[in-house]
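Here is one chain, start to finish.
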Amino acid sequence: MSCQLRPASEADIQAICDLVNGYAAQNLMLPRTPAQVRHALGDFLVAAAAGRVLGCGYLAALGPDLVEIRSLAVAPDRQGDGIGGLLVETLVQAARARGIKYVCALTLAPEFFARHGFTRVDRWSISPKLWGECVYCPKFHACDEIAMLKVLDS
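Its structure:
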């Protein structure tokens, strides 16, 4: 079954929350409330098929030339189908179209991002704005996430 990538809509908010919060319950990412998703809705991208949200992610601006990929999630039964990679590549293209120079991600899956041209960097080398959400993470004092960065060609 193939999927379609499209901008998220109001009708997708609960599905995005359910998808992201399933992983958040396992301490794999930060949870999202409907209000938080609604606030970032214009930046969210979803992968959908047959009326079901199969994946999501969005770009959060951290500065004039830096964005972070956040809330990147794929339905567990669809992992390995290329949906995550398609989301990342489309988000990177969106950043490039906006004239952004750097795309970063904090991840527990550095190999996945490396396959998409990201390189591992020291987490403290990225904008301090990146850490704004970290205080809400249950692993804040023992962070095990790896910072990955992709430099975009101009």
